[in-house]
Amino acid sequence: MSRGMQILIGTLLAAVLGGVALLAYLITADPLQIGPTVQRATHAVHEQLERAPSAGSSSAPLPAATSSSSEFEGGGAHATTSGSGAALRADTEPASTSDQGGHPLLTDGQEAVLRLVGIDPASLPERATPTQISCFKEVVGDERYDAIVSGGTPTLGEVWRARSCL
Fold this sequence. Notes:
The chain is an all-alpha fold. The protein has a domain at 69-165. The protein has six helices and no strands. It has helices at residues 3-29, 35-51, 108-116, 130-140, 142-149, 156-162. α4 packs across α5 (142-149). The longest helix has 27 residues, at 3-29. The radius of gyration is 22 Å and the shape is elongated. Residues 54-99 have low confidence and may be disordered.
């Protein structure tokens, strides 16, 4: 084996071992304090798997609420986004909420995502400032914003990125 190949293999081995050591440090010391968030998300997934219907039963997905995006432009309706990035619906009839005392303007799916990241949906305001709305649109994009406002469920990543819109 040539000297150059030995150096390359040694460098790659050192990089892999360094990466493993860094990962072990991040998991053990948790300097970014992501442990509680990961534990909540893992716990919620395990609960959902335990409550999942058996193979013999069928369950239909819940329909998403829809409304036109024009209701949300210009200040005609009261629907906005909360600071956490979850879209609030503009319809006058409240969305169905879970038994845990959820938010009257959020869908069950939107509430579930917020709970996964440790946000209590009942604590969210029913209105947001125009600055918060424009921030949310900038973070997730206009098309995705419209989908979420129409009842779509934001991803964990979208909620995480939109936390800065508070």
